[in-house]
Structure formats: C-alpha cells, structure tokens
Design a protein that fits this description.
With 338 residues, this protein is α/β, with parallel strands linked by helices. It is built from ten helices and 15 strands. It folds into two domains: 197 residues, Quinone Oxidoreductase, Chain A, domain 1 (Alpha-Beta Complex), CATH 3.90.180; 123 residues, NAD(P)-binding Rossmann-like Domain (Rossmann fold), CATH 3.40.50.720. It binds zinc ion (2 copies). One zinc ion binds next to loops.
Length: 338
C-alpha cells in the first residue's frame, strides 16, 4: 500500500479546491483511520471553502459526511477494528470532561471537534477521526447512501424525533430539497400526518411519492392558512434557508406548535410573538447530533426504507460537484467517491 493518498484541499480561505498527493495520515491515540468509500458534499462545506467559520486553519480537507471502513486504529481504541464499516458526521468528537460532556450533552461540548473543519475530512482517500465520533454503518446500507444520512439525514431525523409530536400529529416539512426530501420521508415513517411545503409546484408528485399526505404549493397558496385549515401544525421543520420562508409559515403553528429550523437563513427572522403566546407555540432550531444519533438515523433508514436521492462524482471532480450543490442544481445530495 502506498504511503500517500489523493485528497482535495482548500489551500486558504476563499481559494479554489486543489487535488494533492498527501502523506497518508496515521491515527493518533484515540483515533481511527478510515478508508473513505464515499463523502457527501454539504452546504456547510462553504464554511471551510470561504473561511466563514472561526478558527479553521489551512490547508484543510473538507467533508463531514464520511462513510468508509476502519483501516487502522490508534492506541487506546478498543471499540473498533480494521474492516468495520463506519461513518462520521459534523460532530467530530468531544472531550468527556467539560460541563456539558459531564451531563452527557456531547453536542454541547466546549472543546468539540468538527469533522472536515477543525481536522481534515472526507474529500480524500483516508481520514483520521476520533473514535467517539464514529457510527457503525448497517450492513444493508451502501456507502454512497450512508454518506448524506450523516449530516442531512441525522439533522432532519434527530430534529423530528426530539419534538413533542406524536403519531398522527400534523407535521409540516418546509422545502423539498437536500434536507427536506429526507425530512418528508422521516416524518411519514415516524407516523405523522405529513405536509410538504414547497415553492416549486413541480415537486408535488415527488413529495407525495416520498410519503407526504398533503402538498402545499407555497408559490400560489398561503402556507400558514393551509396549515390552519388542516388543524394547525404540531411541528414545522424549516429546511429553507430564507427568512421570508420562515416568516410565511410560523402562523401555521397550532396549539403547542414548534417551528424547528434546520436550514439557516443568512439574515434575521422577524416573528410575531403575540401570535405565539396564545398558542403556547415556539420558534427554535436544531443542530445535527452525536455519533450514536447518526447510527440511529442509519438504522431507522434501513428499517423503514428511507433513501437519499444522490448524484455521485469522482474525487477529481470535487469542484464541479461542489458548484452543483452550491447552485442548488443537484437532486438532491452530491456524493464524492474517492
Ligand atoms: Zn452538513
Ligand atoms: Zn466536552
């Protein structure tokens, strides 16, 4: 086996991707080296590409939707062995010692790592990952399908399952794109009466196929009014990264309704608190989850047949693949195969 590997790195903030031959990294204590079979491209990779996240050092290999196989284990790693199929997502490890970690809130770790951001990620043939950031990939799940579940999947699955919605409750998913096409599948399979909200009427058929019970064309109908006509939403999962989109649906919340943002608008959102008080409703947000949450996401996806729609690219075509994601042209998630 050669001691080098192909990797796509961002040489400095704002620069173009470059393909390089690099030293194959060796796993340090507590780390595992993963041979990458697939790595999804996520909108959050723009943080690395454009340097808009504090504390990233360059050059940096992006990629936080890694699916592959354990290739080598470092000292003190006992739970994983060479050949195990594993995945790693945004949550790239935690310290076990800070106050949130002591309370079991690993996502809140004050010294947490982020895959492909605070250390090199999966736009490469190999990546080293802290052992506590690994999820087991189920046998029945292909690496290319697992990859998007490690960010887009876990984000929507974990957000929905941590709401107060129960079977039969009205749950709306706003946006039928990279996150939303998974959110609709999860909402349906979790037993919710599922509404897909989209400004693209051509998504109707797909949304219904994915499991939506209702489709609301937000370009020609008032989504809040439609949700109220259906009884008011217990949950609205916001995947559209636009303040106007959020503002257009909050009025559709019912009693104890929760708006949960997983798509992040680049601007401030204005909310009519008066309208929330009487309904005891809330507007909040959710981010991702830890490695076991990722594993739950993949296991549920296999159990209930949730599949991401993907386009695959060779590692050498990372720039083209990234542009496709950025221009919102992909249906729906873009995956690199190193
Ligand atoms: Zn992501
Ligand atoms: Zn910690």
């Amino acid at each position: 086996m050669s001691d080098t590997m192909r990797a796509v790195q961002v040489p400095e903030a704002g620069a173009d991707f470059e393909m390089v031959e690099r030293e194959r990294p060796n796993p340090g204590p507590g780390e595992v080296r993963v041979a990458v079979d697939a790595c999804g491209i996520c909108h959050s990779d723009a943080f690395v590409k454009e340097g808009t996240y504090p504390g990233v050092s360059y050059p940096r290999v992006p990629g936080h939707e890694i699916a592959g196989r354990v290739d080598a284990v470092g000292e003190r790693v006992t739970g994983w062995a060479a050949g195990d199929r594993v995945g790693a997502g945004w949550h790239g490890g935690h310290c076990f010692e800070c106050e949130p970690c002591r309370r079991g809130d690993f996502q809140g770790c004050e010294h947490g790592d982020i895959t492909g951001l605070t250390f090199d990620g999966g736009y490469a043939e190999y990546a080293t990952v802290p052992a506590e950031a690994l999820a087991a990939v189920p046998d029945d799940l292909d690496a290319v399908d697992a990859a998007p579940l490690l960010c887009a999947g876990i984000t929507t699955f974990n957000a929905l399952r941590n709401t107060g919605a129960g079977p039969g409750d009205l749950v709306a998913v706003q946006g039928v794109g990279g996150l939303g096409h998974l959110g609709v599948q999860y909402a349906h399979r979790m037993g919710f009466e599922t509404v897909a909200l989209s400004r693209s009427p051509d998504k109707r058929e797909l949304a219904l196929e994915l499991g939506a019970d209702h489709f609301v064309d937000a370009s020609s109908e008032d989504p809040a009014e439609r949700l109220q006509a259906l009884g008011g939403a217990r949950v609205i999962l916001g995947t559209a990264p636009s303040a106007a989109a959020v503002e257009s649906v909050v009025g559709g919340l019912g009693r104890d309704g929760e708006f949960v943002a997983v798509g992040v608008p680049g601007e401030e959102v204005s909310v009519d608190v008066q309208g929330l008080v009487g309904k005891r409703a809330s507007v909040g947000a959710w981010s991702s989850g830890h490695a076991r949450d990722s594993q739950d996401t993949m296991e549920f996806s296999v159990l209930r047949d949730v599949t991401p729609e993907i386009e695959t690219y060779d590692l050498a075509d990372a720039s083209e693949a990234y542009e496709r994601m950025l221009e919102n042209e992909a249906r729906f998630r873009v995956v690199l195969e190193p």
